[in-house]
Amino acid sequence: MAVAEDLKSDDERMILDAVDQFLERHVRPVAHDLEAKDEYPHEIVERMKELGLFGATIGEDYGGLGLSASTYTKIVERVSAVWMSVSGIFNSHLIMAQAVERAGTEEQKRHWLPRFATGELRGGIALTEPDAGTDLQAVRTRATKDGNGYRVTGTKTWISNSVEGTVLAVLTKTDPAAEPRHKGMSLFLIEKGDGVRVSRKLEKLGYKGIDSGELVFEDCFVPADNLIGGIEGRGLQQILGGLELGRINVAARGVGIARACLDDSVRYAQQRKTFGKPIAEHQAIQFKLADMATQCEAARLLVAQAAAAYDRGERCDMEAGMAKLFATEAAIHNSLEAMRLHGAYGYSKEFNIERYYRDAPLLAIGEGTNELQRIIIAKQLVARNPA
After folding, report:
1. Residue 310: per-residue pLDDT
2. What average pLDDT does this structure show over 39-52?
3. Cα–Cα distance for residue pair 296/254, rounded to 1 Å
4. Kind and range of the H or E run holding 274
5. How far apart are CA 363 and CA 376, in angstroms?
6. What's the Cα-to-Cα distance from 55 to each of 84, 94, 190, 205, 293, rounded to whole Å?
7. Are 254 and 363 in contact (CB under 8 A)?
8. Would you say the pTM of this structure is higher than 0.70?
9. Average model confidence (pLDDT) for the chain?
10. How far apart are CA 71 and CA 82, in angstroms?
11. Given its phi and psi angles, is residue 180 left (phi above 0), alpha (psi -120 to 50 degrees) or beta?
C-alpha cells in the first residue's frame, strides 16, 4: 500500500512539475499583456493541448489523463496563481466532458471523449440565461422533437468558451409543463454551426482573455444521438453532478488568487522600506500578512477535503460549498489586503495586484453564488445531523 502511494505521489509530482514549467515558460511572461488587451491566448491553448490539460479528468480509457480531483485542484491552484483566466479555458470544458463520462451512453463516450481529451473539440457548459442564473429550473431554452432529432431555440449568456469553443453542453426544456420542473429538463451536446449564433462577446471587469459570450439558438437542429444519456428529463441532475467538481475548481482558483496575493505581498513587504526599515518589520503589516497566510492555508485544506470526498465517490455538495465559500472569500480578502499593503503600486496597472483585485469577485458569483453555498451548507448540515 505504501509503495502504491509513493508511486502515486511521484506521478503527481511529475505532472505538477510539468505544469509549473509550462506556466513559467509560456504563461507568466505574456499574462500581463494579454490580460490588458483582453486577448484570447491561442498559443497557450495549443501548449495546453500538448500537456493534456483538456483531458485532465477524462478517463484513460477515453484518451484522458484520468487525474483525481485532488491532483486536478493542485493544477488549478497553480494556474490561477499565475493567470486565473487560463484555468477557465479547460475547467468549463472538463465539466462538459464529465457530464458525458458520467451520464452518457457508451457510444457517446467513445464518440466525444477522445476528441475532448485532445482538445480537438473544446467548449463548456451553456446553462445561464438572461432570466435564469442560480435558479436553473427557470431556463427557457426549448428543445422540441423533430423527426430524428430536436429543434433548439433560446438564448444563453455568460457562457465561457462560447466564442472560441466548438461545442457546448446546453441545458434545455424538453417538457415545459413537467412537474416538478427538473423532470422536463434535458442536456444536449451542440456543435456550433447552422442555427447557433454568437450575438456578442461580453465585456468584463476582470477574468479577461477567456471569452464569455451570449449565444442565440435559432431553430437549431440537434440529432437525437446528442441527448446525453439518450433519455429526456435527466439534464438537471446530469449537470449538477458536474457542478460539484466545478465548485471545487472555483475554490481552487480562490486558493490560487489568495496565494498570489500573499506571495507578492511577502516579497514586497521585505523590499519596501518606511521609517528606515522594511515594512515587514512593522507590526501592522505583520498582522496583515499573518491573516492572509492563515486564510490561504485554511482555504487550501478545505479544497483538499472536498476533493478527497469527491474522489471517494461520496456526496460532497456541502464540502464543495464550504470550500467554494471560504476560498473565494479568502481571495477577495487577500486581494484587498494586498492592494492596501502595496499602496499606490497595488492600484497601478503596471503590477498584478489590481488584476487579482478585479478577478477575485467573480469567484464569489460563478458556479453558484456564495449566498447559495450558505443555503446548501445549512441544508446539508441539518440533513446529516437530524435532531
Report:
1. 94
2. 97
3. 9
4. strand 273-274
5. 17
6. 19, 7, 19, 29, 32
7. yes
8. yes
9. 94
10. 18
11. beta
- The angle that helices 235-271 and 283-311 make with each other, rounded to 10 degrees, is 150
DSSP E strands in 101-206: the ranges are 123-126, 142-146, 149-160, 167-173, 185-191, 196-201
CB 185 within 8 A of CB 236: yes
Instruction: Give dist(CA 173, CA 141) in Å, integer.
Output: 6
Which residue has 521609517 as its cell numbers? 275
Write down the residue that cell numbers 501548449 correspond to. 47
Nearest to 181 by CA among 236, 242, 134, 251: 236
In the annotation, is 101 catalytic? no
What domains can you pick out in the chain, each with its CATH number?
2-118 (1.10.540.10), 124-230 (2.40.110.10), 237-384 (1.20.140.10)
Q: How confident is the model at residue 8 (pLDDT cuts 50, 70, 90)?
A: low
Res. 241 pLDDT band, cuts 50 70 90: confident
Report how far apart the first and last C-alpha atoms of the chain are (Å, whole number): 40
Q: Which three cell numbers stand for residue 375?
A: 443555503
Nearest 5°: CA angle at 198, between 196 and 229? 45
Of 46, 297, 367, 371, the active-site residue reads 367
Cβ–Cβ under 8 Å, residues 47 and 26: yes
